[in-house]
Structures are given as C-alpha cells and as structure tokens.
Request: fold
Amino acid sequence: MGSAKIKILIVEDEKTNIDVLVGLLANNYKTVVAKNGEQALKRAVSDPAPDIILLDVMMPGMDGFEVCRRLKKSEQTSDIPVIFITGMDSPADETRGLQLGAVDFIRKPFNPDVVLARIQTHLAVEQQKRHLLELNNLKNSFLGMAAHDLRNPLNAIHGLSDMMVNIDLSENERQEFTTTIHNVSNQMLKLISDLLDVTVIESGQFELNLQPVDLTELIEDRLTLLSITAAQTDVTIRKELEHGVTTVMDPERMAQVVDNIIGNALKFTPPNSTITVRTGQKDSRIFFQVQDQGVGIPEKELDKLFIAFQKLSTRPTGNQRSTGLGLAIVKKIVDAHKGVVDVTSVAGKGATFTVYLSKTAYESQSVVDEHIVLDRNLRLLVIDDDYALRLLYGKAFGKGGFDIVGEAENGKEGLAHYLTLKPDVTLLDIEMPVMDGIKTLKSIMESDKSACVIMLTSVDQAEVWDECHDAGASHYLRKDTPYPELQNKVLEAWKYHQLNSQ
Reply:
C-alpha cells in the first residue's frame, strides 16, 4: 500500500482544523474532505473508497458517533478504519466510540507527530490484515485444489497398482498400467511443485540467486528436454535465437519461466503445427518470445492469465491437465527480475508470449554503485503532474550527486523549462494533462538530439516503451522503484547514454 495511493477522508466542520489536517497529510496522502455527516457517508462509498477515515465527534446535525454507527453497519464501509478526532477527554465517550467500531482517537489541538504516527500505525495494521486475508484465501484455494486435483490421480494409482498386485496381467497390460501410473504420478508431482512455488512466492520468502546468464544458451538447454515432448505431440519447434543475449538473472527460476511458457504452447498447439521460439535484444532490454499456432485466448480472458487458480475456457489440445498455476508463477518470477510479460492473442489463431528483461545488470541496493564516478552533480529536471511524486524525487535526488534544477506539472511547462535549463537528465511522465509525455519527448528531441530523457511509467507495456524509444528516450523508470534504487537507475541510464553518444 504505497502512501501516494492512500486515500484519507477527513470529516470535520471547522475550517481551521480542516486546513491543519490537509496541510499535514496532503504531501503524502490523497485527502478528501466532508464537512458534515451526510457528506461523509456519501464520500465513504466513492470509488476508490478511502483507506482510513478521520471523523470529528461534534458536528451539527449528525454527530460522529452516528456516522460511525452507519459506516460500520454498511457492508461497503464496515472494514474502513475510523479514527475519531475530538477535543473531549471523556472515558465514557471514548468507550462509546470504540464500541461503535472506531480504532483510535486523536485529540485536539493536533500534535502533528502524533497524528501521523497514529495514521501510519493503523494503515500498517490494515495492510497486514489484508495480507493475512489474502494468504488465508490462498490457503483455502490450495486445499481445494489439492483435494480435487490429487484425489483422482491417487485413486487411479491405487486402483491400477492394486490390480497389478492381485490380478494376473499380460505383459502388455502390465506395461500399460506401469506407464499410466508413471504419467499420473508426474502430474501429481507437477501440481505439488507448483503449489509449493506459489506458497514460497506469496509468503515473501522468494529470493533470487542472481548471476550473469546467456538467455539463449539457457533456452537451448531447456529446448533439448522440451523437444521430446514436442516430438510426442507432433509439434515442430522452430528456433530463431540470437547469441550473446546476456543479463543478470536467476537461471533456475528463469528456466521455470521458459519451461512454463513453452510447455503451455505445446499443450494448446494441435499436432502438425509449429511453435517459434525467439531471443533477441532491443535497446536496453533483451527478450524471449514464444509464438504458437494453437487455440488462442479470448480477449475477455487475457486479464485472467496470470492469476493463480484461474480456469479459462480454452482447453489443451491433448486433454492434458492444467493446474492454473504455471503462468501465475511466470509472472511472479519475471516481476522479481524487474521484467515484463506481454501477451498477444487472437482466438483460434494462436498466442504470442514475450518476456522482456533489462539488459543492464540487476542493480544492488546500495545508493550509488562504486564504479560510477562523477566529477560534478547531475542536473535533473522532473516533469510529472503528480505532486507527491515530484516531492519524492526532490527528496531522493536532492543530494548525493544530483541537483534538481526544475520541476513541471505538465508537458508544455516542462518543455519550456528544458529549453531554458538544459538539464543533464530529464525525468518525464508519460500520461500528463496539456501535453503528454510522448509529445513532450518528441519536442525535446527536436530541440536537442543529445538529450537524455528517462520516461516515468506506472505500468510496463512493451508497445509504449517501444514508442518512447523510437521517439528518442534513453531509458524508462518504474514509478514504484524503491528509493535506494532510484539513484542507481538514473546513473546507469546516464552512463549508458553517454557511452552511446560518443
């Protein structure tokens, strides 16, 4: 739950108190104000709903206690934490508020440190509750899948083995039973392995063993094994592999990604068809792509592909069993590598899965890599309509080898700043009012072909990044990049830009 996304509803009828609370919270949270109980109830059911409500006790008309009672009675708002704000110091009132479902009280006049501490504490508690609920739902899904998907193969193994022990069978029958038991046990092993993988990933114990790896060599090794499966299903695997496609990754985890994506293509591709496996590199990224001639994926189901336990309408061509976990694991592993999985498909005409990974080394958590040495501070211009993000970058780059020379909240203003300031690096948001990031980027590059512009993005989309690169961008930066990594990413992009500009 990033603070830039957290929404706080302030219910208060006194302007002075509203100004104090908004001034205190607006830099870190999205604040919404209601001046009476009726407004509060309406704004509590808005979309998105507030993450926490600060509720004044004494208000004209409907008081805070009644507002709290109605909030907790409604299924839509009952789970939203309510903190009463009050000038009273009455144990009876405090008891009443807690009995109605409030989680805490904040006293007037406000102590800024206390207000922030109470809010942060209850937001952390709420986040933990949500995480525990997700884990509980995941556990229930595991148990349900295990009960359903393991019972049938176990029954088959038990029944076939019982017949082998107690009945005289021909050699052909014995061989058929043995082969079936072997295949069914492999299905069970795959299911249990997937369940354990998802459990480890979701529990937060997922770690990567990072090392330099040639992605093409890794894929060729996996294809040696997967080609056996392909031959059994009369599917041809065509290789279009570029050598020297190297980056830092966890080879075992990335092998899982390769196996799942190619294995998925084999499941859904009919006999006498072709699967094409490609590797290559483009700009600051390398990619691995699998294109099949299978049944394809309906457009309305594409957003379900990477969610665990989802069952889609398409069925494997050979009636193989599917756990619904493979692509969920793929997404988790690629995300952990700071990569992107892209899918395009037309129902009945096949699907194409592409995994993009950064070509640069996976950055350490140190603030500045030792091998990057600057003889002066880098001058940065930040262009983004999100005030909270500009504030964050101002703090993150305000020292340690950087100077923020300017900031702008839209592309038009940002372009004017660029032409005046001529910064070393420009951090440019893609979606902005007045003039969006793509148009701003093109205008900057028209005025200065040597400009180093790093695009800011909330969601990795291959086609958007390709458009940015074609327009002249040097790199892109995820907005959710943790603070310790921000400086490294910009320094690496700057270094890369300098090397390619010489």
About this structure: The chain has four domains: 3-110, 146-202, 211-358, 378-501. Residues 52 and 81 are 5 Å apart (CA to CA). The radius of gyration is 28 Å. The longest helix spans residues 112-166.
